[in-house]
Amino acid sequence: MGTWCAGPVLLEIVVPARNEAARLPAGLGLLSDALAGLPVRAEVIVVDNASGDGTADIVRSWRGPVPVRLVRCDRPGKGAAVRAGLLATRAPWVGFMDADMATDLAALDDVLGLLRDGRPVVVGSRRHDRSVVQAYALPLRRLGAVTFNRLVRDLAGGVADTQCGFKFFAGPLARAAAADLRTAGFSFDVELLAHCVRRGADVTAIPVVWRDRPGSTFSVRRHSLRCLIDLALIRARAGGGPLRRRAPQDAHVPAQAPAPPAEAVSRTAPGFGRG
């Protein structure tokens, strides 16, 4: 167990799940063990995104070292599920990650250090020069990811990899950005980051160890057109260009979450060398 299990929950992790009964137990096991080893109290929120299998039953019966609670989202779409999960959070720091745990969870130590230091948005980037990335199973999927990120960098504060499912935020900022989120599908990350940037938040990208997992629900052939339409809508709502950053003092929420008491979390400089 973590060394700071008493007191308030400081970190909540959202896991969107649609028909993930096969992969969810292993993913929850890895995540629970990793969070239990952190020096803060953490919880997991699994969002059942209109699943037709036993996803919800797995969450209800889950017993592990950290609490896991269930949120239901009947609107299909990963963006809709993440939005519902973020709006259900209450902690000063929040994040979301994919059920397959493709990103090595050793990076959580670095994330926690950066959040503790006041970074408002911390994202895993497979395009970081210090990341270790297992090749995509399908070359077409890799090409699609590279092309997609080149199209949207100006919308998302210059982030080179908007689609890595490993993102963390100051809680008030995440909840305000999620409340404005309108994209229900796979392009939601772009809009969510854009809303954070518009509120004056800088985005910090960190290296990750990432492994392509079988079973992804995203298909370049089936979803590319919908993603392009969503990007056009996001850009149109931004006035035809990037969502311009406002001065932090003009934001509706603080760009940085208030830091918990010093004794609640050990202050360690992020090393970026784990994994």
UniProtKB/TrEMBL annotation:
Molecular function GO terms recorded: glycosyltransferase activity
Keywords: Glycosyltransferase, Transferase
Domain Glycosyltransferase 2-like: 13-154
Keyword Nucleus listed: no
Thylakoid listed as a keyword: no
Residue span of region Disordered: 242-275
EC number: 2.4.-.-
InterPro entries given in the database record: Glyco_trans_2-like, Nucleotide-diphossugar_trans
Name used for this protein in its record: Glycosyltransferase
Lineage of producing organism: Bacteria, Bacillati, Actinomycetota, Actinomycetes, Streptosporangiales
